[in-house]
Amino acid sequence: MIFSEGRYQIGGVDALQLVEQFQAPLYVYDSATMLRQYQRITKAFDSVKRLRINYACKALTNVNVLRLFQRWGCGLDTVSVQEVETGLLAGFAPHDIIYTPNCVGLDEVLEATALGVRINIDNISILEQFGAIHPEIPICIRINPHIMAGGNSKISVGHIDSKFGISIHQVPHVLKVVSALGLKIEGLHMHTGSDIYDAQVFLQAVEILLRAAADFPDLDYLDFGSGFKVPYQEGGIATDIEELGERLGARFNAFCESYGRDLELMFEPGKFLVSEAGHFLVRTNVVKTTTASVFAGVDSGLNHLIRPMFYDAYHHITNISNPEGKLRIYNVVGYICETDTFGINRQLSEVREGDILALANAGAYCFMMASNYNSRYRPAEVLVHEGQAHLIRRRETMRDILGTQVELDVLKSASTPV
């Protein structure tokens, strides 16, 4: 996003014109920002002979976004068989998709297996069951390194009390299962959590995985997950991906030399690739002054963007209709019948009823966590690609709200209240 001649632009397109064309609330994504981030991470690890970036599509699963990453040479990280199917529809080869679920039944794992994708198993029970049926299929093992990382407890997934992965202390058990069933382990995987601030913390987990890898002689790749932090406000803390690339790349190359062959280094970034590409545009319905606060109430809520309420996440807010207005303090809130606050005590250019506000960093885990709470429609999505705006998801209608409901004929007829 940049201001040009006083106008808020996304990928070179005037955001206010996008609202005029597609209405609000509206998610808008800039493909150039996604490409910049993809090229940035690949360049950071250019010392590694074999590198694979798998886009963690749970961040933003629109099929058009997936097609962009496929076109750029990216692989795909999925967590459900539905994401696998979407990735195949987007054009990814099965071998370029890794399926990393947790707490799913064997039936779903077998369904993904039938689609030909790489399988990543995160518990010993499924490892034993799957191995008994398909000992011939190479698999990946998800290890829990017991490292606390992440900006919020809900997105810290590598600690000792996490449901994710097989404890590093259970590797001897894993090796017994592998030996008994004759399994081929082609990869090891870890993911410590989102919003990693310090490269050193990440490197500690790397050392744990490398020590475990020495016990698996047939590896083809090591997947170090992701969790790279992006700045959510000016001057905000972010993962220094260039420093991490230099340090981890050197350590990985040294390990490959001792291991005896060049393994593939994998990452699965989601937020890093798409967060900054997204903008959420909302319209101000009311400006309400109370004895304690001034509220800017908008035509959206936690049904469209739950991260501030769920994770205490910060999204920078800009009044793009009145960028030169006098600065005032507002609580930006939604229209849901709950306390749904996008920002508290935000200094914004004076907000008037009808003004359009833009929430930044809306590309990752924003639309994907949206719902129909209060029977509200989910918003439309627009992709700005090579200077042109394209509708990539239409706004919902009442038909969508009722589409999966089954009306009972016995309740349609008029009746007398009891």
Automatic annotation (TrEMBL):
<dbReference type="InterPro" id="IPR002986">
    <property type="entry name" value="DAP_deCOOHase_LysA"/>
</dbReference>
<feature type="binding site">
    <location>
        <position position="338"/>
    </location>
    <ligand>
        <name>substrate</name>
    </ligand>
</feature>
<dbReference type="InterPro" id="IPR000183">
    <property type="entry name" value="Orn/DAP/Arg_de-COase"/>
</dbReference>
<dbReference type="InterPro" id="IPR009006">
    <property type="entry name" value="Ala_racemase/Decarboxylase_C"/>
</dbReference>
<dbReference type="GO" id="GO:0030170">
    <property type="term" value="F:pyridoxal phosphate binding"/>
</dbReference>
<keyword id="KW-0210">Decarboxylase</keyword>
<dbReference type="InterPro" id="IPR029066">
    <property type="entry name" value="PLP-binding_barrel"/>
</dbReference>
<feature type="binding site">
    <location>
        <position position="307"/>
    </location>
    <ligand>
        <name>substrate</name>
    </ligand>
</feature>
<feature type="binding site">
    <location>
        <position position="365"/>
    </location>
    <ligand>
        <name>substrate</name>
    </ligand>
</feature>
<dbReference type="Pfam" id="PF00278">
    <property type="entry name" value="Orn_DAP_Arg_deC"/>
</dbReference>
<feature type="domain" description="Orn/DAP/Arg decarboxylase 2 N-terminal">
    <location>
        <begin position="33"/>
        <end position="275"/>
    </location>
</feature>
<dbReference type="Pfam" id="PF02784">
    <property type="entry name" value="Orn_Arg_deC_N"/>
</dbReference>
<dbReference type="GO" id="GO:0008836">
    <property type="term" value="F:diaminopimelate decarboxylase activity"/>
</dbReference>
<comment type="pathway">
    <text>Amino-acid biosynthesis; L-lysine biosynthesis via DAP pathway; L-lysine from DL-2,6-diaminopimelate: step 1/1.</text>
</comment>
<comment type="subunit">
    <text>Homodimer.</text>
</comment>
<feature type="binding site">
    <location>
        <position position="365"/>
    </location>
    <ligand>
        <name>pyridoxal 5'-phosphate</name>
    </ligand>
</feature>
<keyword id="KW-0663">Pyridoxal phosphate</keyword>
<keyword id="KW-0028">Amino-acid biosynthesis</keyword>
<comment type="similarity">
    <text>Belongs to the Orn/Lys/Arg decarboxylase class-II family. LysA subfamily.</text>
</comment>
<feature type="domain" description="Orn/DAP/Arg decarboxylase 2 C-terminal">
    <location>
        <begin position="27"/>
        <end position="363"/>
    </location>
</feature>
<dbReference type="InterPro" id="IPR022644">
    <property type="entry name" value="De-COase2_N"/>
</dbReference>
<keyword id="KW-0457">Lysine biosynthesis</keyword>
<feature type="active site" description="Proton donor">
    <location>
        <position position="337"/>
    </location>
</feature>
<feature type="binding site">
    <location>
        <position position="311"/>
    </location>
    <ligand>
        <name>substrate</name>
    </ligand>
</feature>
<keyword id="KW-0456">Lyase</keyword>
<feature type="modified residue" description="N6-(pyridoxal phosphate)lysine">
    <location>
        <position position="58"/>
    </location>
</feature>
<dbReference type="GO" id="GO:0009089">
    <property type="term" value="P:lysine biosynthetic process via diaminopimelate"/>
</dbReference>
<comment type="function">
    <text>Specifically catalyzes the decarboxylation of meso-diaminopimelate (meso-DAP) to L-lysine.</text>
</comment>
<dbReference type="InterPro" id="IPR022643">
    <property type="entry name" value="De-COase2_C"/>
</dbReference>
<protein>
    <recommendedName>
        <fullName>Diaminopimelate decarboxylase</fullName>
        <ecNumber>4.1.1.20</ecNumber>
    </recommendedName>
</protein>
<feature type="binding site">
    <location>
        <position position="227"/>
    </location>
    <ligand>
        <name>pyridoxal 5'-phosphate</name>
    </ligand>
</feature>
